[in-house]
Amino acid sequence: MNDAIDLTLLYAVHSALRRDLAELDRVTTAADRDPVHVLATAAGWTMFKKALRAHHAAEDSALWPSLRRNLAGHPKDLALLEVMEAEHAAIAPVIQAIDTLLTEPGADPLRLGQLTDGLTRGLAGHLKHEEDAAFPLIRRTLTAEQWAHFSQVHAQYIGNDAPVLLPWLLNGADKPTAARLLAELPSHLYAACTARWIPAYAALNRWSPGTTA
């Protein structure tokens, strides 16, 4: 067990993704609005996709490869990493199918609900599997240097989307988690996040039609 590995970031991302899956369920089951129109024009769907892509890309490019090198000669653990990557790969086509449906004239809300239900089941199952099986592996085998590299790559994938994705990540986080995440930011990003980005995010009704991320 490596005490230098702090998984606060991963747990916070997972929590935010689960929060948005609940919003997707609310949007696609609401009886008073067209869920196709809402999802096609709401900032919340765009933010969710950006955050998920950045998170999975960072894991695929910087986390699983480091673990794979450390776990050479441990076939059971290596098989788990293959499953993690396969679960990532299975989620992307569902999101693409949703986006394709949203562009179709007269798109069927029932079909949209089926797709978002599939996304919720697949992603929620993956998040739990990762927490139950991969997180202990990360704590046990990853070095502090490898963890620092993954954190850096994760930040790079967020990149220019930081003004929306950092508040997205902090939204709903408990005070200790938010304080820890903010404390890791460089001073200029901390100032921008607290003074401008969080207030702008708070003023945005992310899951209303006609909003932009």
Helix content: over 70%
Give the averaged pLDDT, no decimals.
95
Approximate strand percentage: under 5%
Distance between the termini: 39 Å
Shape: globular
Largest sheet: none
Describe the protein's architecture and organization.
- By secondary structure, the chain is mostly helical.
- The protein has one domain (8-202): nmb1532 protein domain like (Four Helix Bundle (Hemerythrin (Met), subunit A)), CATH 1.20.120.520.
- Helix content is 78%, strand content 0%.
- The chain contains nine helices and no strands.
- The chain has helices at 8-29, 35-41, 43-70, 75-102, 109-141, 144-158, 162-170, 175-183, 187-202.
- The longest helix has 33 residues, at 109-141.
- The radius of gyration is 18 Å and the shape is globular.
- The mean pLDDT is 95.
Overview in brief:
By secondary structure, the protein is an all-alpha fold.
Secondary-structure map with pairings?
Layout: H1 8-29, H2 35-41, H3 43-70, H4 75-102, H5 109-141, H6 144-158, H7 162-170, H8 175-183, H9 187-202
Helix pairs in contact: 1-2, 1-3, 1-5, 3-4, 3-6, 4-5, 7-9
Name a few traits of the molecule:
mainly alpha; 213 residues; globular; 9 helices; Four Helix Bundle (Hemerythrin (Met), subunit A)
